[in-house]
Amino acid sequence: MGLPAGYEEQIEEYCEKHEAMLLRSLGTGTQGTVFTAKNPRHPSVYAVKFHLRQIAYDREVGVYVRLQDLDVSEVCGHNVPELLGYDDELLVIEMSTVKPPFCLDFGGAYLDQPPDYTPEVWRDWREEKSDDFEENWPAVEQILDEFRWMGIHIADVNPGNIRF
Fold first, then answer.
1. What is the top-level taxon of the source organism (predicted)?
2. Cα separation, 7 vs 31, whole angstroms
3. pLDDT higher than threshold 60 for residue 1
4. What is the mean pLDDT of residues 132-154?
5. Which pTM value belongs to this model?
6. Fewer Cβ atoms within 10 Å of its own Cβ: the N or the C terminal residue of the chain?
7. What is the rounded distance in angstroms from the CA atom of residue 59 to the CA atom of residue 56?
8. The pLDDT value given to residue 113
9. Is the pLDDT of residue 5 over 80?
10. Which residues pair with 83 in a beta bridge?
11. Please, what is the average pLDDT of the chain?
């Protein structure tokens, strides 16, 4: 399996430490790379996300722990992955897989306070996201409001991580 540059050692160490076998790539983004995997600890196939940056890992783990503490498995009818485990040493998160409609990828989220953007940046952000989601934008705004109610401020919103 061709591994994304920079992740080879981390992935090999994770697979050895957790007796895991990676099955297929689900994608690589700015915050990490995701695979489906299986191992003896999990009865079914799960998703595993590898991070290279501590800050993105910390944010995403924080969001998943918050969702777990609140017993959240869906937001406005959109499935949310369940936290199955994480490895602070290897910057790896294990989570359940979900099918659309879903909300996922919280590496760009902030807990308890939104990012410190200027009003102009927020205006441009809303315009761009409205264009990205087209007729689904009002539903996305409702989803984002629900996450904000939980203290989760999602800045990285795109049709790949909020799917209808």
1. Bacteria
2. 12
3. no
4. 97
5. 0.91
6. N
7. 5
8. 93
9. no
10. 95
11. 94
Amino acid at position 89, single letter: E
pLDDT average, residue stretch 62-89 = 97
> 118 is written with which tokens?
């200027």
Neighbouring residues of 6: CB distance < 8 A, sequence distance ≥ 6: 52
**CA–CA dist 52, 29 (Å, integer):** 11
Phi, psi of 138 (to 5 degrees): -60, -40
Contact 137, 78 (CB under 8 A): no
pLDDT of residue 4: 65
Sole residue written with tokens 């999602």: 154
**What DSSP string runs through 106-150?**
-TTEEESS-----HHHHHHHHHHHHHHHGGGHHHHHHHHHHHHHT
